[in-house]
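Task: encode each sequence below as structure tokens.

Item 1
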Amino acid sequence: MQKLKFYQIDAFANRPYEGNPAAVIPLEVWLDDEAMQNIATENNLSDTAFFVPVDDHYEIRWFTPNGEVDLCGHATLASAYVLFEVLGYSKEVVSFTSKSGILHVLKEDQYLMMDFPAQVLESTDEMYDFFTDVFGATPVEVYKSMDYLVVFDEDISNFTPDVRMLEILDLRGVIITSLGEGYDFISRFFAPNYGIAEDPVTGSAYTQLVPYWSERLEKKELISKQVSKRGGELWCTLKGDRVLIKGKAVKVIEGVFYHGS
């Protein structure tokens, strides 16, 4: 029986039980894919992050309850928190290599700032009627990238979507967004094909949201809130072809995961 250190971190949270919970499991060497998927399914959180030290950086992978994803923001923030605040990582910046390239996380006082690649948005004339049926309101713009980005002119906070309808989609998930009182914009995220009906806070979604809103609002620095039930605040900056995403995190569970027989 292998004992693995296990941490549950609330990312993009000012206090416990806010933001998005992620499981973080530091490894010395990689487990096989089936083992990591089984652990993520057992955790039953939106994402479980695994990382392994390689030279002066770390390799990182993320698994939802239903499969591996190429990029996850909140579990990267949670992994950096574990390194900085639990495992004693002493440098100012920690770097991860991933299926989405190199990701950097800077420790900045009480905040962690992620440096992610911006996603290119492709406008599409399709799906307007479909998303109207799902969300009960007509979008004003629809884009495709890693996810569908669906823009509304009305406040999205109280939408009650038929999430099961989204299971037919070919991309990772669906981001909906609008202007929001007190913030530059607000958003929500749904990925039922990955076992996530609605994600509390989705850091990777902002690699698509920030380029869109930066151009529309003609500003580089943006403050956003993901208006899920738990909710979370993010401070974002568009810097060339990179998106800087800043938030806080807190540890809520520390323990041992028993793996194998």
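Item 2
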Amino acid sequence: MTAVANDIKAGRGLVDEALFGSITNFVMLHDGETPERAERIADQAIAFVATSATATASMMPSDDVDKGLHAFILHTREHHAFCDRVAGRFLHHTPASAPVEGGRPLERVTASARAMKAAGFQVFDGLWEVDGTNAAQCDSDDGRPY
């Protein structure tokens, strides 16, 4: 019998520690998040961008993950270089695609969390909520401990 390893990736592993720390610090200072929560937000934002490079789903972050996404984008040189490395092109942020009223559609946020899981990233359920509903739940059972 052959054992199959399910390596779960972390977004933070895709950037150097200095950049990860800077994104985390930005989220702490500007969004009032605790250090632990800010680290998780930064991790998910980086994983979100990496997944967006190849995802077939229309990607939309949760409100919490969007905090980290904005912090990452404000590191313009590093964000541009990251996009070139993971996607071969710049990945634009289009805030106009976010709904003006009614919040983010649960289906779009859920599709994004599922795409990240399918890409092998750990997804922190508590950061993927829409109006109190966990958007990170997945019916798929591929043996990974979510």
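Check on item 2: Residues 139-146 have pLDDT under 50 and may be disordered. Strands lie at 129-130, 133-134.
End of task.
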